[in-house]
Amino acid sequence: DGQHLVNYEGFWFPEMFLPSIRSSRNNFVAKNTDIILATVPKSGTTWLKALTFSVANRGIYAVDQSPLLKSNPHKLVPFIQEYIGDEHDKLLPMENVSDPRILSSHVPFVMLPYSVAKSECKIIYLCRNPLDQFISLHHFFASNKIEKEAVPLGFEESFDMFCQGIIGFGPFWEHMIGYWNAHLENPKKVLFLKYEDLKEDIVLNVKKIAEFMGCPFSEEEVGKGVVEEISKLCSFGNLKNLEVNKNGYVMDGVLKNNTFFRKGEVGDWANYLSSEMAERMKKLMEIKFEGSGLTFKI
Ligand code: A3P
């Protein structure tokens, strides 16, 4: 859908990202204090970046002074591979990133930098029901021209590819199951979150995130309503309406800030997918997630 994909070790990657993904896999040196955000694209990465940034920096900035009010979350929490020089296979200096560093990635668990498993750094994974994820992705491609030469696929065709697993960082089920199993194996290393749960109870999940990050909210903070304040600051309505997110671009001017804030709802797929398409996807999820214990509210 507007991107050239290549298969690498069983997963599909946008060709333009592969050099930096491979380079960061070998060269990125994780620190024990790092927090790595891992997501399927269009699962709420921007939201998770805002939340974790706010949780980690709550002692430094009052909510009404938050850098989030002036910067798109992707500027404050970069992708790991943004620091890796493609051609030189070298780490670029991480400027303006103080400890604990929060960095993000879309790569599958097995493709994370080798140093991540060896260090004590923590991983927060976020995914979303694939029906909404697909619809979100479709709109995102329609409103950003990602590759000049790539010919966009039609809706039905891109849905078919998605169901075959041919999608950036897909197959989505392999991506999710990889992190799900890593979470089951070591829940202190990998926190597993779902977009739908965050929508249902953000306060509970912000507390969960803070605990996992090793900086739980004190009773005093809870009493003062800090958790609610952070939740509100990072809410869809608030971020979408900030001047900084209405204009401008991130990632070398390729992606429009406002395209990261579309609708922010659960179940929007029902407005776009035919009942046959929805059935196909539900059946696929049943088969792929069978026995794993992984389920989604859709
Ligand atoms: P929709 O296209 O369904 O609206 P990502 O950040 O991984 O690119 O995901 C983008 C999706 O998350 C979009 O979904 C976007 O609207 C939604 N989103 C962005 N910020 C959000 C927030 N603060 N709260 C809830 N959803 C948010």
From TrEMBL:
Top-level division of the source organism's lineage: Eukaryota
Keyword Transferase annotated: yes
Recorded E.C. number(s)? 2.8.2.-
Which UniProt keywords are given for this protein, alphabetically ordered?
Transferase
- Which residues are in the Sulfotransferase domain? 33-292
Query: Per the record, a Pfam family?
Result: Sulfotransfer_1
Q: Does the keyword GTP-binding apply?
A: no
The record's listing under InterPro entries reads:
P-loop_NTPase, Sulfotransferase_dom
Query: What is one cellular component GO term in this UniProt entry?
Result: cytoplasm
One GO BP annotation of this record: sulfation
One MF term in the entry's GO annotations: sulfotransferase activity
Q: Which family does it belong to?
A: Belongs to the sulfotransferase 1 family.
User: Known PANTHER family for this protein?
Assistant: SULFOTRANSFERASE SULT
* Identification of the protein by name: Sulfotransferase
Species annotation: Erythranthe guttata (Yellow monkey flower)
